[in-house]
Amino acid sequence: MGLIRAQPARPGYTHMVGPQDSELSLIHFGLLRLSEGACFGLAQDGLETVLVILGGRCDVEAEGCKWESIGSRGDVFGGKPTAVYVPPGESVTVKGRGELEIAVCAAPAEGGGETRLITPEQVGVRRVGEGTFLREIYDIAVAENVAAERLLVGETYNLPGLWSSYPPHKHDVHAPPQESKLEEVYHFRVNPPQGFGMQRIYGEGGDESYAVQDRDTVTIARGFHPVAAAPGYQLYYLWVLAGEERVMHPREDAAHSWVSSRS
Asked: Less crowded by CB within 10 Å, the N or C end of the chain?
């Protein structure tokens, strides 16, 4: 478990967290920033990758595929995302069309699916919860729409003062069908950016709470992990999951699960 504070925005690729510097064993996560006409080549040997356009437009070229001027939002609060899935072993070139920021989400894989563009129209939208824990979820790369081997990627939006990942759930034990073992990364954005949210991670591995700020990243190797947005501030987080099996079976904290079943 751990909090990685935001790093100064700089051109090129910035590594945020991975197995070499955290409790994670599978997920690699970083941010790519490019300006107009700048190019970046990415070769992920042994890793499948989902490139999520956080804001801006770009050209993307992979083996046998080329998409020009993709991306439809100025930032993460400006609509549904565009993404590209790339299986292991394929090289990718990204070219900025104006100011661009991409989340690079990766995990080990031997196979995976085919290289493909995920358009905003192909991103599923769910409203989950009720009352003070109602949130909106964008499913970018999940089992139903992208044939990845390990990665699951999406976005969650909390309105000011509301909770998500609630009732608290975890997925750190392989006990199908009640629970599947998946590690996770949350990457946060806040609107307006001077705001904050709260992240708690608790369970047999300990109990920690963080005041998360704009552009912070949190690793979740185990434990229940609810999130709250401070009043006045909209909270966003990109979530990246990976496990030996690509299936979501979260287990709710029995002490709090009653709140979702009340009449």
From this structure: C
